[in-house]
Amino acid sequence: MSDKKNNWPLWEVFIRSRQGLGHKHVGSLHAADAEMAIGNARDVYTRRQEGVSIWVIPSDAITASAPEDSEALYDPANDKIYRHPTFYVLPDEVNHM
Amino acid sequence: MNNSQLKSALLRLGDDALILGQRLAEWCGHAPALEEDIALTNISLDLIGQTQSYLSLAGSLFEDGVKTDDELTFLRTDREFQNLLLVEQPNGNFGDTIVRQFLFDKFALLRAEHLAQQTFNSEAAAIAAKAVKEIRYHADHSSKWVIRLGDGTTESHDRVQKSLDDLWKFTGEMFISDEIDRAGVESGFLPNLDDLKKKWDEEIDNVLGEATLTRPEDCFMQTGGRTGIHTEQLSFMLAEMQVLPRTYPGTSW
Amino acid sequence: MNATHEKLREEFDAYVAEDKKIEPKDWMPDGYRKTLIRQISQHAHSEVVGMLPESNWITRAPSLQRKAILLAKVQDEAGHGLYLYSAAETLGVDRADLIADLLSGKARYSSIFNYPTLTWADMGAIGWLVDGAAIMNQVPLCRCSYGPYARAMTRVCREESFHQRQGYSIMMELMKGTEDQKAMAQDSLNRWWWPSLMMFGPSDKHSTHSSQNMKWNIKRFSNDELRQRMVDMTVPQAELIGLKIPDSDLKWNNETGHYDFGEIDWEEFNNVLSGNGPCNKERLEARNKAHDDGAWVREAASAYAEKKSKK
Fold first, then answer.
1. Which residues of C47-61 are buried (b: 16+ CB within 10 A; e: fewer)?
2. Which range of residues forms the domain containing residue A22?
């Protein structure tokens, strides 16, 4: 029953909701080609003025990090608190730094 | 252009949008893909919005009292509708719908671009300025589909060529000028249809070329919509569309 | 091997118990994945089949405004189906396969959509009651443990808030109208009241999936809890506009602080569910026809895209 020829590829959709913001992942859809994917994304994901710019990316073109690597990838940043401004205690007299 | 001529011109604009919007609404829930279902209903919604604007404006010009867009939609008879025959043709298969849309969109866009810029009637210009943006998207959508279907598979090519051949006889009507068109052109309100036809021809040919489709020979063209003599299709559509306000006169919903 | 699996399972349960979200690539028990695929795809199917009873009246909507509203509403259902299929696809299934299951009759969808829409008032009743019940069911799902489902539901719920209102507004307008219109509204409530209470599923005594789903934070309230909430909320809304709930056992209970209501006809529920509803056949036929009629179109678009990519 499932005819692969009939199944358009999956695209991930990213929308910029306002000028000045980054594109944010909103979901996916099927389309035969990139142009159609843009059109469909416009019709499906911006019916209520949710966007000013659209990116579509074939889902299979995305490489994702593996959840089981997350400790190795993200935990080492845990103790580097000196990267955050709040680590530094300044005299009260020094404002705006 | 006198008041009554302006009224007629606006009714034609409103009726084209109404009848095509109604036809497209029939697709809701039945399109070839979920994404396309949403696309077709979006176009239908745009057209219903244009209908409301044009018919309200036309309704304000009746000498025997203002008529609302709903009164004009639900309480006129088929003879009083002035839409093009093209837009009342049944949806047929998806290719038929797309070709009908494509032939109309390219015409409607050129017409709306003129209307948006004319200074004869500023209210109509404002409606058209909004419509231009919408129709530009519609024309892009239908053109791309004509190309995909034309240059897709052998089956799709043959089907969409047939749609084109079948609907071609309704294209001539778009460019026939009558008294209202001539008055409209004179006052700057309406575009010159001969000029419009040249641009339309060019745009149609470009897309058909890319779609590997053959432009049909100009045949004997069907006319009558602008004077209320329609094809058999319209009365059925009105019967369905008008059933509630006709059955329960004077009610509000 | 089994020990690792056991450990993963324990970690998963603990994680979910803390109300944290599971994302597509995270490890999850097979049962969890299967349950989600079943539930999300059923939900998606319901949105898509649910378009049919309402699209039935778009061409007959009695004003341009109502036509536009109904069209936008049914279009939203298509969108919601799409968001949900998207969420299901993050679990490693293909939309085409899910749809194939719907079309062959293997997959289920909400049985409410197997009832016919006979009058314009049914557009009111569906929006008010059916969408009302759906929202009641769906709001807790915005906090469901599976991230993509929760996010899809958040979007769905945000968009659906107008659906119920437009339905109630249709009913309100009818109840302000002529005797014919009032009768039309009451008749519609009479037909839709019980089926919409059935939408919450079997009574808690007989619900098979409930407890595990509660533990996994896929479900947060029991069927009967939600049903009671629906009754409590809807009865005053009906009274306000002069509609009578078709239940002779319905009365306010001061002790419980809830309405008592009559027994649901579970025989009807089971029959509609198992395919004997008034429109089961028509709904599936309509979906199959759309799918079959569209095959050449989808194929053409694929063929064209392939040609283009080779150029």
1. bbbbbbbbbbbbbbb
2. 2-62
